[in-house]
Amino acid sequence: MTEAELQKEIEAEALAKPGNADKYKMDDVQADPDSKIRGKKIIFLGSSVTVGYASFNESFVHYAAKKCGIDYILEAISGTTLVDTPRNGNDSYVTRMKGIDKSYPADLFLCQLSTNDATNKKPLGEIAEGFDKEKFDVLTITGAMEYVIAYARETWGCKVAFYTGTKYGSPEYEAMVARLLELKEKWDIDVLDLWNDPEMNAVSKSDYDLYMFDPIHPCKAGYKLWWGPKFVKFFEEIL
């Protein structure tokens, strides 16, 4: 099966999901004219979950834009990793972030903790002793995360945050979440930890089946009703 044929198959499967029904499209999100974060500028760096891989390119990013009127740059490509070992060209997080407009007056830089690193069993690595980005081992997950944090702060001088996916059966990703929380302490960054969030983990099976395309990727309903409000609350708290 070619890549194009596989993509058509995935799109057909996604279209059949109740969670991707028209009533969950972002166009129908009611704007909040009194939003505390209206006009805030956010850079999003990520992969398929940030793109909206299984929801026809609508994600929490588009929810926040519609709901709160944020301005944003979206730099996200499905299948990419934090670790700087390109799949097809220079598409790692570390490489792609260098192409983002350096003059953009960002209030926040938000990076996805990529599930692709866990799926591809990339090495976790170790936390470095200092804060010099040139000394981080970007061939490891930890080194790449530290590089992203350091580069974002140096380039945009804004708040830096990461977000995790919701819980699924991956000890590798669980280890990545634990490491991210260690880096939160070292770097004093903000983390939207959906993985360990009691409310997110208390979701009913029927709601979960509506919200999620698979254990990693939400449908439109998942972004609109489940993930999106969490992101908006997070943005309001840290901005």
Uncertain parts:
none
Q: Note the run of SSEs as H and E.
A: HEHHEHEHHEHEHHH
Shape: globular
- Tell me the major beta sheet: 5 strands, parallel
Distinct helical segment count:
10
Task: Please give a structural write-up.
- The protein has helices at 3-15, 48-51, 60-68, 93-96, 115-119, 141-156, 171-187, 198-201, 205-211, 220-238; strands at residues 41-46, 71-76, 108-112, 159-163, 190-192.
- Helix 3 packs across helix 10 (220-238) and helix 6 (141-156) runs parallel beside helix 7 (171-187).
- The mean pLDDT is 94.
- A 5-stranded parallel beta sheet has the order 2-1-3-4-5, sandwiched between helices.
- It is of the alpha/beta class.
- It has 10 helices and 5 strands; from the N terminus they run αβααβαβααβαβααα.
- Helix 7 (171-187) links the parallel strand 4 and strand 5.
What's the layout of helices and strands?
Elements: H1 3-15, E1 41-46, H2 48-51, H3 60-68, E2 71-76, H4 93-96, E3 108-112, H5 115-119, H6 141-156, E4 159-163, H7 171-187, E5 190-192, H8 198-201, H9 205-211, H10 220-238
